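Appendix C reproduces, verbatim, an entry submitted by the partner laboratory led by Prof. M.T., so that reviewers can inspect both the input and the predicted structure.
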Amino acid sequence: MRTLDETDLKILRLLSEDGRKPYSEIGDSVGLSGPAVSDRVSRLRELGVIRGFTVDVDRSTLRDGTPMLLRLSVVPDDVESVVATLGESEETETVYTTAAGDVVAHVNLPTTDARSWLLDTVSGDAVRSFDADLLTDVETTDAVAGTDFALSCAECGNTVTEEGVTTRVGDDLVSFCCSSCESRYQERYEELKQGV
């Protein structure tokens, strides 16, 4: 199996800077033709490395508001619902969950009273405590580095290395760490397919 190489990483870096950059321009930067870049991008999409192309909207330019970073200490059983509630709010830019179970949200509030907004948005019983920091600037980077990429085996979850296998299963291109995992996955796929 051919793993991601330096050219793939350069293509990903260029696309993360501008998802609409023409493949011919990317090709000029990486020493490939436009169609060769297109083939690589298609392969990266099939492998799930590229999930899609999106628009990065700076919501603060679309409306007035106060950009803030909120860090919430949340009751463990309520973390998922708090994340979902914040994610549905028009004021929320991004929501993160930390390993410690805290919820961090970048919000653009219509008021400087973060406490009132939070109580109106999230169930008061779910939040133990919170901190709010005003943001003076927000810079988002989508850095692409070689260590960011490790394809996972669809069967066991291990990292797919040079010894791995990539196979088309149904309509999907699927990666495996070894031929044993590929066989188990294929067998289960066929059993499920016959059971339908």
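The mean pLDDT is 84. Additional entries are available on request from the coordinating office.
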